[in-house]
Amino acid sequence: RAPRGVPKMRRPCTFLVLLNPQSGKGQAHTLFTRHVQGILQEAGILYTLIITECQNHARELVRETDLSQWDALVIMSGDGLLFEVVNGLMEREDWEEAIKTPLGILPGGSGNALAASIHHYAGLQPVTSEELLVSCGFTLCKGLVSRLDLSSVRTASGQRMFSFLSLAWGFVADVDIESEKYRRVGAARFTLGTLVRLASLRVYRGKLAYLPAQDPRGPSSTSAQGPSPQRGPPDSLLAPLDSPVPAHWTVVTDEDFVLVLAVYQSHLAEDLIAAPASQLEDGVMHLIYVKAGISRTALLRLFLAMEKGTHLGTGCPHVEYVKVRALRLEPHSPKGTITVDGELVEYGPVQAQIHGSLARLIAG
Ligand SMILES: Nc1ncnc2c1ncn2[C@@H]1O[C@H](COP(=O)(O)OP(=O)(O)OP(=O)(O)O)[C@@H](O)[C@H]1O
What we know:
With 364 residues, this protein is an alpha+beta fold.
């Protein structure tokens, strides 16, 4: 039975499953057939399976399709394909309705942060790989639909995207992108990437400012808002990127960082619990930043503790953690990497604000 207040999907129901055959170790289709197909059939769930052929295939498909045919859109891949689907839905004229289509995730990638987060939110013992896939398969069959926060991210060229997972700059973003070449080793790619990056640890210069979630003035909007969006809700907390941040924001005095990470789910990967306190619809971004001066050993210890989600309680003086509703990052380093949901985006000034409960997700 569904807990009180949690909507359950009607039966029989029909899913559109979008599967990226290249995700993770390139075995997503086999994994789906072996571990998920049978569970869905036994649960009486009908589905149409579409194998994505290239980048943006899923994005274009959900932008154009008649969504009334489907009770849910299910993504079997890493987090990158879900990022495409979320943005495809937000690009539609009927975005407000479209983004309420229940989404489901089946881990087929090497990171699988959202899948691991859903498993964690259900209070289950941590599992990885195929066990996580089976757990997510059962979650889909239960069909309990939760609300999901999305963050609106804006870059200097005026690009706007919607993100369900993270915004990263510095160490984490570098590891995410540099470790793509090790994707064949699966989730271990991040451990490998972390060790390689630790050997060439560097400092990232820039300015960071944020609107704390506990703003005593309450959820105030700014008077100098950015351009009104064509699609999606207005970013009422953000000033234009070429203007100063609103006066009541907190401006971080340090300008030398090792990493800046805003995460809105508990997990950053199957075995990295970056924000253990995070929930699907807590209406905040969990901002974690590490100031320059941290030793390699301390940083390694931090990542090892992150595997258990205990890193924020280690008392490391270089680590700061704050819940925010909006933030702005202005890198000074001429070159660098910024990722949104693990995907590379335009490098330069970037800002984001959380939009609580905008999307829907099948979770436990
Ligand atoms: N058939 C395909 N061939 C190549 N790329 C594809 C295909 N289908 C989707 N893509 C693209 O692959 C990218 C990576 O997908 P995704 O992040 O879901 O998997 P992954 O990279 O294996 O997972 P993870 O991020 O967990 O490592 C996405 O940007 C997606 O658009």
